[in-house]
Amino acid sequence: MSILSGKNILLGISAGIAAYKTASLVRLLVKAGADVKVVMSPASLDFVTPLTLSTLSKHPVVSSFYNEDDESAVWNSHVELGLWADLFIIAPATANTMSKMASGTCDNLLLATYLSAKCPVYFAPAMDLDMYKHPSTAHSFKTLQSFGNIMIPATSGELASGLVGEGRMAEPEDIVSFVENHILGQLPLYGKKVMLTAGPTYEAIDPVRFIGNHSSGKMGFELAEVAANLGAEVILISGPTNQTLQHSRVKIVPVVSAQDMYEQAHLYFKTADIAILAAAVADYKPKEVALQKIKKDDSTLTLELEKTKDILASLGEIKSNQFLVGFALETHNELEHAKAKLKRKHLNLIVLNSLNDKGAGFKSDTNKVTLIDAQEHITEFTLKSKADVAQDIFNEILNQIHA
Ligand code: CTP
Q1: Domain map of the chain by residue range?
Q2: Which residues of the chain have a pLDDT value below 50?
């Protein structure tokens, strides 16, 4: 999943030959999961047809305040469009349009929308090399950047005039990755690695049976999605679960047993900045795993169990700068037990779930948690969806790592 997924993106097209590339740009933005609307300058209609762009964007394309041929036509509101957009990309941005943007001229719908938009504005210049170098154009670049607009620099190459030089609009793929990287770069966990464990573990009894538990993995998967949307690179070590997550910044490492999870956690912990252990790891496993299916020959069966390794505690022992978060599921003396766990396992934060709270626990979509930090500050939350709980946990982590 791209960081652009779910975003409202307004594409403004001005009249340059590079406008023919905007069909691909719309296609790529839609593919990245964005909702795309297009506003064109009237002169750009000579370079690419609204029909192509409305078909690709699945929205009507607008280029004037109203349709002169249709008396019943509605007024195209630049204010509404500007407010709708989470991002405004002007590509191609011609010398003429940039100069008007810089001076506040708004003699068409695209420019009026530019003046109304409150969202981040990106512009991708496109023109011939001498126009690109002209001091007047350089002045527009500078003025627009001083407004906080973000320039997607043109590249060098063969231009429509046949001349070779700077002025070619960035390719649609490069525009998309420029915008993605720019958004990511501003996110609070960009450049950080987050390691998570999630789900149950299965401890084999024989080739067909195991000891497991009812953990759905949902809490860990929600945490992974929040971390990725905050810009982190996420490693999600998950026991067997039905949860799915497709996000370009999340790598899922599937494991089965507590020993597998232990090994993978130790592998990825070294380079992690934040580690959150949300898995419901089996505390005991069969001492011997039968090589063949155990037959029901006897009236009783005794399994000898031995302790699994405590992954969280073992990471607490070796941690250097990692911010380490554990979970505690308690039934009585909850705060005391959770505080003791926080100390014993050398954690920075512990997330306490009480089994006494209705709607909290393994299979539910909701959770009610209390966060306790290393200074034993306690923050209680109300019953929320696990997605909101994940957000609360990361808000607290961000507070702590920036404190
Ligand atoms: N945990 C782990 N490895 C284990 C057992 C637990 O990493 N073998 C982690 C869990 O992912 C969770 C935390 O430890 O983050 C709390 O687990 P829990 O089983 O409640 O704690 P224990 O310290 O084992 O205490 P007890 O079961 O006695 O309450």
Answers
A1: 8-185, 193-286+304-401
A2: none
Whether 326 is in the pocket of ligand 1, judged by its Cβ within 6 Å, is yes
pLDDT tens column, 50-95:
999 999 999 999 999 876 666 666 777 888 899 999 999 999 999 9
Question: Does residue 279 have its Cβ closer than 6 Å to ligand 1?
Answer: yes
Q: What's the CA angle centered on 104, arms 9 and 127, to 5 degrees?
A: 65
Q: How far apart are CA 201 and CA 259, in angstroms?
A: 9
Catalytic annotation, residues: 213
Which residue has the least CA distance to atom 17 on ligand 1?
Answer: 328
Q: Which two tokens stand for residue 400?
A: 């702590």
Question: Would you say the CATH fold of 193-286+304-401 matches that of 8-185?
Answer: yes
Compute, in angstroms, the gap from residue 277 CA to the centroid of ligand 1: 9
Q: Specify the ligand 1 atom closest to the Cα of 345.
A: 23
Q: Is 346 exposed, middle or buried (0-12, 13-18, 19+ CB in 10 A)?
A: middle
- Listed in sequence order, the residues at least 6 apart from 15 whose beta carbon sits closer than 8 Å to its beta carbon are 41, 43, 44, 46, 47, 94, 96, 97
Overall residue count recorded for the chain in this entry: 403
Which residue's CA is the closest to the ligand 1 atom numbered 12? 327
> What's the pLDDT at 362?
66
- Enumerate residues 6+ apart whose C-beta is below 8 A from 1: 33, 228, 246, 247, 248
Which residue's CA is minimally distant from atom 21 of ligand 1? 328
Please determine, looking at this structure, whether the domain spanning 8-185 carries the CATH number 1.20.1250.20. no
- CATH number, span 193-286+304-401: 3.40.50.10300
Atom of ligand 1 nearest to the CA of 312: 7
Shortest-distance atom of ligand 1 to CA 326: 15
The confidence score (pLDDT) of residue 70 equals 66
pTM of the model: 0.85
Q: Report whether 348 contacts 374 (CB < 8 A).
A: yes
State whether the beta carbon of 314 lies less than 6 angstroms from ligand 1: no
DSSP character for 158? Answer: E
Please indicate whether residue 277, judged by its CB atom, sits closer than 6 Å to ligand 1: yes
